[in-house]
Design goal:
It comes from Marivirga atlantica. It holds the Pfam family YceI. This is Lipid/polyisoprenoid-binding YceI-like domain-containing protein. This protein is mainly beta. It has a single domain, classed as Lipid/polyisoprenoid-binding, YceI-like (Lipocalin, Beta Barrel), CATH 2.40.128. Helix content is about 10%, strand content about 50%. It has an eight-stranded antiparallel β-barrel with strand order 1-4-5-8-9-10-11-15. β10 and β11 form a beta hairpin. The longest helix is centred in the middle third of the chain and has 10 residues. The protein is globular and about 55 Å long.
Length: about 200
Amino acid sequence: MKFLQFAFLFHLMLQPSFQNGLIAQKQKMIVFDHAKSSIEIMGTTNVSDFGCAYNVRLPKDTLMIALKNAEKMLEIKGASLRLPIKSFKCDNSPMTSDFRKLLKAEEHPYINIKLIGIYKIESLKNHAEIAINIAGVQKHFTIATHIEKTDEAYLCEGNPELCITDFGIEAPEKFFGMVKVNEDITVAFSLSFSVYDL
């Protein structure tokens, strides 16, 4: 979402060049409002729900933007994010420990996210193509996002669903199979940020 660190706003900021079929490159700095931003991974078991929130300040980011009027897609270069798994805190300490084991944090300590491009459509609802690497396995996804612009900042939100077995992670069982984690998880992000020219 940054989870996706998300330069989705460039679809709005640079829309005239995109519509005219021009190719341009710009550098921008994104500064997140940590008090208004959140990233959470949520899942369910056969007995309860759980949530694990990212607990570390999101860094400033510099992105190289390439605009190409190809198939109505805004191509983004250099937009990537590394989220330390140990920076996610769950509802309680045992659950946090189980979450880290589930995502194989000792062998693969980061969730890596790369923003590849944004499909331009007429409303503020966009589709972004991203690559996510969890537990050493990378997969490509197309996710729906929503962008809102206020007087002071941009707000980008989304809640894509992922299947952990796509990343070679087996849904665990506890207490002799009495508690089972479901394969599907949701990554909910709400990112408030401002953008500055370099």
